[in-house]
Design brief:
- The longest helix has 21 residues, at 258-278.
- This protein has helices at 2-8, 10-22, 31-44, 101-117, 140-145, 205-216, 219-222, 258-278, 298-309, 331-336, 369-386, and strands at residues 48-51, 55-61, 67-74, 124-131, 156-167, 170-173, 176-179, 181-190, 194-195, 227-235, 242-243, 246-255, 282-288, 294-296, 316-319, 338-347.
- The chain contains eleven helices and 16 strands.
- It is α/β, with parallel strands linked by helices.
- Helices cover 33% and strands 27% of the residues.
- Helix 4 (101-117) crosses helix 11 (369-386).
- It is elongated, with a radius of gyration of 23 Å.
Length: 389
Amino acid sequence: MIEKRAFELKDELISIRRELHKTPETDFEEIKTAEFIREKLTEYGIPYTIAAKTGTVALIEGKNAGKTILLRADIDGLPITDESDFEIKSEREGYMHACGHDIHAACLLGAAKILYDIKDKLNGNVKLVFQPAEEGNGGALPMIEDGIMENPHVDGAFALHVEPLEKTGNIQIKDGPVMASPDDFEIIIHGIGGHGAYPEKCINPLSVCAAILNKYHEIPKKYNLPCVVTICTINGGTCRNAIPDTAVMTGTARSLDPDTREKLIRLLEDIALSTAKEMNASIEFNFNVLFPPVVNDVDMNKIIKQSAEKLSCINDVVTLDAPSMAGDDFAYFGERVKSSYFKLGVGNTEKGAIYPIHSPKFKADEDALPIGSAIMAQAAVDFLDTLER
């Protein structure tokens, strides 16, 4: 019944996705996005509350008392110019749904409609979380701090994310660590500027940047740490024949467990300090701790796999061998309850859906929309039916 209903909603899901696709909004500025989602929930008869400014939490109460499952969709876009050949373009210059969050929201609205129609058969409750700001400072924690994990108490959580490099009809899943903590850092290097013709009379902060960069890229192999360290910007100087006094470098440091994370923070600071000292410069080191790693619970993954087996629209459940070094603040839900974060294939070479997320050419196969709604709804039902509190 769930799968049949999801495909009956296909045209509506496509319409919802396209409407959201036109107006991508970022970090707690998802005003139009949130209004549209709330209008749909009102149309469906599903009550909701507001959390973290542009976040929305809808609640479907089942006829029978039981557990509560949380289904999450992030809703924000990216500051990327739309260069795709998709027939519906972003109407906001310089902004785009390049990570598929419009698809996530559409899939969750579809699941909401399906679950509300069968609420009298649910053995518990379903919380539908439309979360802002995943791409930026993170909206999950502010929503949690607003109390969305209670009244009723949440017992588990699911989230899907589109994967354009996986075929439509497949989903991807992995036990244990599935995404990294996406921390970042800034290093301000103070040297002594002067004429570019006399480098021996200066302390070039850009040379210090180069030395630190080389040492940072050796960290995973040299210290046998499962991590990624990438320098993304180096800024210093304003003309071609003058050495600047100061340079600034920024980057990202990604790890998959708390111990590695702590070691990495210490290493980054120690290497920067010692390198600067060797070169007679000084530094200011600023590390920005962001989201924790996303870690999937084995039992929750089993629910997803069992649910997928019930849906003929899912051709294959692909088990991933290695985690992604990208991050997602769904991790905050996973720190509090058992959770599963899985990927929904939206790739289709014939339709040109071949570009990775965050690409300005990102495109998705909309045939995946009812599949996303079906798996989310089925997983919610199966969680409420099978897991003990």
